[in-house]
Amino acid sequence: TKTKTKTKTLSLDRYGKHFMDGDCYRESCYQCAYANMSRVGDLTVGDFWGIAKSHPSFNSPKGVSSVFVNTEKGQKLFEMMRVLAEVEEATLEEGMVKQHNLVQPSNRPVTRDTFYKSIDELGFIENIKVGFQPKARLKSVLPNKLIQKIKSL
Asked: What predicted TM-score, i.e. pTM, was given to this entire model?
């Protein structure tokens, strides 16, 4: 609305749930040649999923980005931007904890075929199912500080 922002837990959103489940990706995502640690770019930037376990004091409810430096040029670029950000160093293992696609392509779920079956039909979005999702529903009503504390345990 004009005066309020409403957020929704991704797994409770009709599209978000299927995105997180991986059943609405392009076919190429399931055979991605770039889903490995032999990176072709100078830097790899992404979300630092799982930071609450390895760096609880650096965690933020708004999210934390990860930057993997892959080349000397990437190191120079990173050093240039370092002064513009709060930086906490982490090991490669810590940064990869929940980054499945840094190791291998996404698994193609069997539900991928059925997801796209009726995509051209009227009301497709309204008919996408989310399911009960008890964990996500519980998280959506708990205060963020409590969730962050639980994640750091």
From this structure: 0.70
